[in-house]
Amino acid sequence: MKKLNKLNKPLSFSNQKGIGDRGLTLIELLVVVTIMGVIAGIAVYSYVRIIEKTEEDVCDANALLLKREYERSLVLENIDHSDVFFASFLMGSSVESCEGCEFTYEDGDVLCNKRTEGDKDENGEVPFF
After folding, report:
1. Distance of alpha carbon 69 from its chain centroid, rounded?
2. How far is residue 42 from each of residues 37, 39, 122, measured CA to CA in Å?
3. How far apart are CA 103 and CA 68, in angstroms?
4. Could you give the CA distance from residue 53 to residue 21 in angstroms, rounded to a whole number?
5. Which of 25, 34, 50, 87 has its CA 20 to 30 A from that of 94?
6. Under a CB-based contact definition with an 8 Å cutoff, are residues 66 and 95 in contact?
7. Mean pLDDT, each 10-residue run in order, the chain (129 residues)
8. Closest by alpha carbon to 56, among 3, 17, 8, 112?
């Protein structure tokens, strides 16, 4: 048995205000597509930034691991640092370098050529564009 409203007509839920049977207008579709485009743009930018940050973190971790292994090797061999010994150490090391990265040993730190201090401003911070 159908429910009746106050005017003794069957209740109809399809003719309510909103989308109903008429569908979406072109303006509504444009607004939805624009909002989805903005959200997608933000998501892609965030994803790319997360990937870049992860690559930087891996490079830092590899440099720290190389530094510890190299200093351990210096102590075990009982020798001082030399560029020749560091180069031979890198060739025999199991630590993989990042893509296009070359490690150097300067002032007690292992540095990656991709992550130079030249990227920082006079305050030691990376400039914001």
Report:
1. 28
2. 9, 5, 31
3. 14
4. 49
5. 50
6. yes
7. 59 53 83 96 96 90 91 91 88 80 86 66 58
8. 112
